[in-house]
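Consider the following assembly input.
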Amino acid sequence: MTTTIALVDGNNFYVSCERVFNPALECRPVVVLSNNDGCVVSRSNEAKALGIRMGVPFFEIRSFIKSHGLTWLSSNYALYGDMSARMMALLGEFAPRQEIYSIDECFLDFTGTPGKVRDHGRSIRRRVRQYLGITTCTGIGTSKTLAKLANHVAKTHRQYQGVFDWEQLSLLEQEALMDTLDVGEIWGIGRRLSPQLKAMSIHTVLDMKRANATLMRKRFSVLLQRTVAELNGESCMNLDDVAEPKSQILASRSFGRPVTALQELREAASSHIIRAAERLRSQHSSCSQVTVFMHTNRFRNNDPQYNPAILVPLTVATDDTRRLIAAAMSGLESIYRTGFRYKKIGVMLTGLQPVHAVQDDLFSTVEQPRATRLMSTMDRINRIYGMNTATFASAGIDQPWRMQTAQKSPRYTTSWNELPQAR
DNA sequence: TCTGGGGTCCTAGGACCC
DNA sequence: TCTGGGGTCCTAGGACCC
């Protein structure tokens, strides 16, 4: 049976979430910034029309605030995460199988379902708009790659009103449209591969569709071979509707200002371990390796640069925050050097395995049941009373190194104290 | 002055084993 | 003088995604 895949996503997702609770943002140029108020990560259509590109550093567009009334917001992941969960639950009702691909998009598998999938796309658009106040676009195709591309068409070609299915065109029309799309629009072809393909005279999606798949594999990798097949309607990528546990967990942040003191680095690394370990336990894994890495500011050419990383193996895999902090601290101390202005520190947990499969150490002195109870009690307290209600002193109290978030909106949907007020 | 964070997959090459 | 071949496992690095 031919597969039928839809890719649904929320338009300008972070900005749209903000607008739901603050209608004064409608019809104006609005951007949401990354952590630390660093780069633009979401733009309203009005902001796009000003020529503000995705990912630009905020300081480059500050002048638009005065000249064009640009509104900017720090990112509010508590809000976007909660809105995402509501949207995904709603979308999941439309198809038998759903793969949540990112915070604002999912694949829906309509293979074998009756009716025109385009009609589903339209009801999705109505329903999500009505229930959540967010506008969606839907792309439909016989493979994930074609669905992604169709979504791009739905967004950029007004006449399709946010829903586009390759099937609504004849083969000739499909190829004519593909010939107008840049090869870089294809899922999996980014800024490095795209020039290499163009050097081989593959400029458009149509060129890529007609490319020699075996040659693609030889020149690049099996990934591009698959891409060619998928563009030809042959579905090679399965829809993963059961989320696998993560195979690595990473927590890192840039500092709000340059950091030089070991003590501040220790606090920051501890606080990252605390977050990472919570995620580790929430997927019922333990980890056998902790990596600590640091960066100086790569944009400051005159500063001496130092980007060390160290992997600390654990003799017994664990999910105990205290042991993970201890491992991170020993790693940090061995790579720390004075004389550098550090910009960022991060930790990575790898060697993940199901917690029940952990091989104990013959000479282990850790009282595992007590540790497990302690950790799950802390997790429960923090779930009920809010993040960091119970935490570890090693993360510090004042945390002067913390990132900047100068314009964060309230957590309208996840905090009793910050519910929207009736006016 | 000011430049994000969290992931995945694939490949090449080294270590190691017999 | 002259130092194999085949396999597996692991890691680092590069590419991609949002």
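The longest helix of chain A spans residues 262-282. Ask yourself how this observation constrains the way the partners meet.
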